């Protein structure tokens, strides 16, 4: 189920029609408060979230939804510079689209996030990896820092699990995207940096003080202290 949060009725209708044609059940909300209420009531798999909404702005909607759901969120915004601002805000969205967007592309992005492996629960080789204070349980998909559970979005968790699976190995942004999003990934590589920055913040580190996720200059990232 995809919840489409968009106050422009015509756009919302077109997006829903395309999603329905691609086989998804949809619901729609036209205001911020309604979006939060419906996200809670319907537990959608994906939320397509417009930032400019009446009642409550999209970022606040996002924050409230994140208190009870880790569903995928694809943000749509009218201004491309907005995306850069969002990078700094740690909003925990999984993807961004700038308006005007092609509805076809939006559907492709929804399909891409839903194809991502959520949890490797069928994987018997589940293990607990420890990096100093950081404990990653790959079977339970849980992450603890100094004993406290770290709440991660599905994307952040996917990135961390991928890196932790091969400590010390450098992954390119493209490799990480493919591991987390699948090879149908069609977005911009720099989104990896956005998610890594958010992940680092939750792990209490910065690029300069990296204890866990280390930047490998000219390549990408690897797990382990530099
Ligand atoms: Ca709007």
Concise structural overview:
It comes from Brachybacterium equifaecis. This protein has 226 residues and is of the alpha/beta class.
Describe the protein's architecture and organization.
With 226 residues, the chain is α/β, with parallel strands linked by helices. The chain is built from eight helices and twelve strands. The chain has helices spanning 9-21, 32-42, 58-66, 80-87, 103-115, 154-165, 173-181, 190-202, and strands at 2-5, 26-29, 46-50, 72-77, 95-98, 128-131, 134-137, 142-145, 148-149, 171-172, 213-216, 220-223. The strands form three sheets. Strands 2-1-3-4-5 form a five-stranded parallel sheet, sandwiched between helices. It is globular, with a radius of gyration of 18 Å. Mean pLDDT is 85; it is low at 119-125. The chain binds calcium ion. Calcium ion (CA) binds at residues 7-8, 50, 52-53.
